[in-house]
Amino acid sequence: MWDWFPIVFFPLKILVLGIGMFFAIKWHRDQEKKNNKTRQP
């Protein structure tokens, strides 16, 4: 059973972390755009 665990777990882990990083960067960019929009008259 443990032979296939690293083959499945590590790509899944990389995929989940990649998606999380994408949404974190997207959220920060959206916040920066929102703050710049409200600062300018």
Poorly predicted tracts of residues: none
**Global geometry:** rod-shaped
Topology pattern, helix = H, strand = E: H
Biggest sheet layout = none
Could you tell me the strand content as a percent range? under 5%
- Helix fraction, binned, reads over 70%
Cα separation of the termini: 62 Å
Kindly state the mean pLDDT as a whole number? 92
The number of helical runs is 1
Total strand segments: 0
Secondary-structure content class: mainly alpha
Radius of gyration: 18 Å
Give a quick precis of the structure:
The chain is mostly helical and 41 residues long. The protein contains 1 helix and no strands.
Could you walk me through the main structural features you see in this protein, from its secondary elements to its overall organization?
- There is one protein chain.
- The protein is an all-alpha fold and 41 residues long.
- 85% of the residues lie in helices and 0% in strands.
- The protein contains 1 helix and no strands.
- The chain has one helix spanning 5-39.
- The radius of gyration is 18 Å and the shape is rod-shaped.
Tags for this entry?
41 residues, mainly alpha, 0% strand
Describe the SSE topology.
Blueprint: H1 5-39
